[in-house]
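Ticket closed. Logging final result for N-acyl homoserine lactonase family protein.
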Amino acid sequence: MISVTAIETGKARMKTAQRTGRDGRGAFGRKIDIFRDKAWVDPLPIYAFLIEHPEGRFLVDTGDTWRNSVPGYLPRWNPFFTKEVIIKVAPGEEIGPRLNAMGLDPARDIEAVILTHFHHDHTGGLDHFPHNRIIASRESYEVSRGLKGMLMGCLPQRWPIWLKPELVDLNGPAVGPFPASHPITRDGRIFLVPTPGHAPGHVSVVVRGDGVTYFLAGDATYDDVNLRAEKADGVTNNPDLSVRTLRAIKLFAAGEPTVILPAHDPGVPQRLAAGMTF
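Final structure:
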């Protein structure tokens, strides 16, 4: 039996220009639009996803941390962190307490943590997993380190000092419209596919359940609406690549019954509960 559970780890607010970039705008123009935008999206959930599989429990992303509220945690020299996004996480909303409430010890009961990318709202809960495998794409990890990573929405200076992720290259067989893949489980029912655009090296996690497939999209799209409309977000440094990724996801979902699960889509719980396919 394979199942997927969404776990909310606080809320994020962003500008409307971040959620949906303006058509015809390049990477730099989209960043300018975010800073100029006066309109904010209603608070969005920050989801991590627990996969129950015969080979163990797998967690996709770790959400964010309450330490965002501590003065100095976010670098003041980068105004995007402090002025363009608002993260609110209570201590009990972190992924560790959330798993505890489900009767799970995060450090012992999770076979592996899979990171779709290294933006801070996906890695903020890493501290809860010191004894676990941490799986990530090599490209995503490399571009997220140092000053370059800090400029693109990562906080490598806040990663646990013990972090040495299991880096993988997506050089497995093509799956539908995706040119490559990487297996996570021996039975091949959980695997990674490349979904770059929002961030270099971004991956999504595909879970083939019983009669339905779950597509854990990370931030490849912020929501079902943007996916259907093929609208890239305002964060991407390559809007054309983002749109190609959205088209690949749609084409994949057209080939098999697929539940799309982005990390910040308020519709995720309803979609999961009803088994609503794309």
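DSSP finds ten helices and twelve strands in the chain. No further action required.
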